[in-house]
What we know:
Layout: H1 11-21, H2 34-51, H3 55-64, H4 76-86, H5 96-107, H6 120-129, H7 134-148, H8 154-169, H9 183-195, H10 198-216
Helix pairs in contact: 1-3, 2-3, 2-6, 3-5, 3-6, 4-5, 5-6, 7-8, 7-10, 8-9
Amino acid sequence: MNDMMTNNPSLDLVEFVEMQILPQYAAFDKAHNMEHVTRVIRASLDLARKTGADINMVYVIAAYHDLGLSGPRAIHHLTSGKMLLADARLKRWFSAEQLKLMKEAVEDHRASASRAPRSIYGKIVAEADRDIEPETVIRRTIQYGLANYAELDEEGHWQRFMKHMDEKYSANGYIRLWIQGSENEHKLNALRNLIAEPAKMRLVFDRIFQEEKNAKK
């Protein structure tokens, strides 16, 4: 049962997730590590309290949303959903109907999805997963590039970075926000203004790129 005084997830569920699920994120790249999943959980719980969604369901959806990165990245959202549904331990807290809804929410969290999430739960985790604070987005994109494209020089990383920025975050990009009036709307506008001015973006890129390269030494 939820803690109705603080509207937090059940303590036994939190203990299970923190012991059995979250440590798996330590094996992922810097852009999808423990810091990332913890932030998504916090943002998801905040949105759950604002929307009235089930706090336990939202907590588990956020915790499982990127577990599929243990396999191919392109289908990680589908793999994550399958992993959630297949985890029989969750039957202690959730019905079969709830677990199906949670699986669908995890599947629907990916930013490149062409359709809206099927439920409020998918919208919550999709929104929470989009930390669109400009510097955070820039740093995570650089971190991913350094981790997965070691053969590129700095100019190559810059070209890959800007291609990604344009395809995902620009005014014509594929990212969609699903909860109106969210803080992400304002952050996305700020990031789009930066993308529209490559000279300013390059200054930010160069600074963070050097910070991340030095951190890897």
